[in-house]
Fold this protein.
Amino acid sequence: MESSALVKRLTANTISLTTAQFVRIGMNTVLSLTIAYQLGARGLGQYALLNAYGPVFQVIATLGIPRLLVRELASETDDAQSIFQAAFFCHSVGSLVGALVLILLVNLLHYPSDTTLALYLVALALLPFSLASLGESALQAHEQMTLMAIQQTSGLGAQLMGSLILLYYGYGIIALAAMILVGQCVTAAVSIRLTGALKLWRPLRLEIQTIRHLLRQVMDFFLMASSVVIFAKLDILMLSFLTNEAVVGVYNAAFLVINMINQASVSFSNAVYPILARLFRRNRREFSHFLQNALRITAIVGMFLVIWLISQSAMVIQLVYPKAEYRAATGMLMILAPFVYIFLLNAMMASSLIAANLQRRSVVIAGVKLIAALLLYPPLIWWQNGVGAAIATVLAGLIGTMLNAYFLAAELKLSYLGMFGVKVVVLDLLLMALLWPFHELGLILFSLVLLIGHGGILVAGKIVTFTEISQLWRLLSTAKATPEK
C-alpha cells in the first residue's frame, strides 16, 4: 500500500512539474523564436551568452545549497527553520560575491559594449535569484509541486511579456537583459509569498553554529553543481571564444530543441528525488525497487525521443527556424539527439547518488565530465565549429553516463542498469533502421508510426508487459485526483 501511494504521489507530482515545464518551454520557445526573427543569428547568439553566464554564476550565488536543502528538509528534520535561515544568509552573501565576480570578469573579456551592459544586468539578477532558489527548494522538499510550478512560471511570464513588447518596439539585447532582472524579481516575490505557510521565514534568527554546519556539508554539492552547470554551458562559452556570435546562434538554435525536450522530461527526476531521499533512510529495499522502475521508464522514454529527433531533424529545424541562415542547425541536431537519452539517465542517476548520501561520487563524475569537455571542445570546435561542439557535448555526456552506472553498481549494488540500458538501445536502433524509409511521412504521421512501433518492440523484447502498461494507464488517469502531501 505504501509503495502504491508513493507511485501515485510521484505520478501526480510529475504531472504538475511536467505541465509547468511545458509552459516554461513554450514561453522560452516563443521568446527565442522572436529573438531569432527580430535580431537574427547574432542576436540569438548574444542571448545564448547571457543564458550561459547566468546559470554559471547562479551556482556561485547559491553555493550549491539548494540540493542539500531539499534533502535536509525532505528528511523532516526538527531543525528545518534554522537550516533554512542559515541557507538564506549564505545565499545573500553568495549572490553579492557572484555579482561582483561576474562584473569584473566581463570587464576583463572586452565584449562589445551592448553585450557588456547586458551582462551587468544579468549580474544584478543574481540577487533576487538567490531568494527564489530558496523558496523552490523548500517547495520541492515538501512535495508542493503545484506551488513550485506557479513560482517557476510567474517570473518567466513577466519576462516574456516585457521582452515581446520591447522587441516589438525595436529594442535589443540590453532590453532583454533588463527583463531577465525583472523576471527574477517577480519570481522572488512570488516565492516568498508561497513559502510563507511553511513557517520557514519567521521569526528570522541566524544561528552561527547552523551556518557553519551547513557550510561544512555543502562543499561537495557546490563542486558538483559548479561542474554540472559549467559543463552545460561550456559549449556556448567555448564557441563564443573560438568563433563568433552568429555561429553561436546557429548552434544554439539546434541545442534549444534538445534543451526543450530535456527540460520537459527532467520533471520526472525532479519529482523522484525527494521520494528517493526519504526511501533511502527508511527502507533500502523499497529504494532499490523504486529506483529500478524509475530508471527503466527514463531509458524507454529517452530512446523514443532520440529516434524521433534523428528521423525528423530536418523537418523540425525547417518548422521552427524558417530562415535560411539556420539550415546548418539540422546536422547539429542529428548529432545532438543522443544527448537526450544521456541527459535523462544522468539526471536520474545523479539524483539517486545524492539521495543515498553519495554526493562525493557525483562530484567526481561531474569533474571528470568537465575535464573531458575542456579537452574535447577546443580541437573539435577548431575542426568543425558548431558540429564539433555537438560531437564534444555527446561524448563528454556519455562519459558521465558510464561513470554514473559504475558507481550505482559499485556503491549501491545496483547492477541492472547496464544490460537493460544496452538492450533498450539495441532494440530501438533496430526499430529506427526499419522505420527510416518512412521518415518523410510528416511529423504527426511518423510520430504515430514510431509510437506504435516503439511500444510493440518493447513488449516483444520483454522490456515491458501489457499488465504494466495497464497499471500505468490507471495511475495516470487517477493521478490528478491524488492530493499532494
The mean pLDDT is 81. The chain is about 85% helix and 0% strand.
